[in-house]
Input
Amino acid sequence: MKRKNSGISLLISLGISLLVLGIALSVVASINRSVQRSADLGRANQVFFAAESGFESAFFHHNARGQGVHFMTDDASQSITHSETSSLVSWTIEGRDNPFSGILKERQKIQVPFFWDDSTNPTKDPPIMGENFDPDHTNAGKLIGEFSLVFSDDDIPVDFDFGTADDAVLIDWSMSREHTFDGLQTFVPELGSGNDACGLGSEFICKGNFLTDGEATIDSTDTIPGEILPGRIITNLANFLGDSDTQKFTLSFFPLLSFEDTGGAKIPGIPFELTTDGVALPKESYEITANVSIGSFSKTITAVVPEKATIGAFDYVVFD
Output
């Protein structure tokens, strides 16, 4: 009996020891998980604020220059090192493209400047003799060749009436410029016969023609008659663009009709694509990308930011 009791006591002791060991291992694992969660939380905060620093640097250089800033090179001037967290942040700004496409939404006005800052280095070092460097960021590129803006009826129902049974101007457009002697001027397209915005010979984008043809195009190589405001000077788009005493052209376009038809159906917008003669133009929004590296951990964060209007001259509305 003594020998039997002794064996049972040993088994009980061994079971208790295993139970205690299991509890201890569970506690250690829980502590390790807590420590890892704390470390991950701290790392997430580090990544967040490091990415924010990249974004802030990109915003600063964009706002210090203007629309069309395009820094896509992997340059040291586009990197930030945080020694306290051993993190490295690199950033880029993608602000130009050719062609670029988008969706024109209801009541949205899009302004595309045909000029941009063409700086390639974001540093603010003094200019070096003999090098083409622009420390004041006044050097700007500009479109010299042709352009074509195409609106299409992709994904628009064939019976969509844009909220009216009558023909009317669907998309209004104009071209603005800064004239050396006359200041801000705007080219507006010619009205049709009888001063009807959608009459015969009209250069506006009207609902009837758009739905019939399936697209509408504004092409700088076409002879598009119109007039210059203020002053109502009769001219055409090619002459307006070719004036040697002008700079900073801006193309503007916006819808005038509802994107909901009389039957209640709605569309998200009208697709468009802007193409130039081999020159990348500023987009209506720019994209910032921040790459963060902390030890063996890395992450890429991206944000798309709408551009601000760059020039507004003589905005108007055409009434039938």
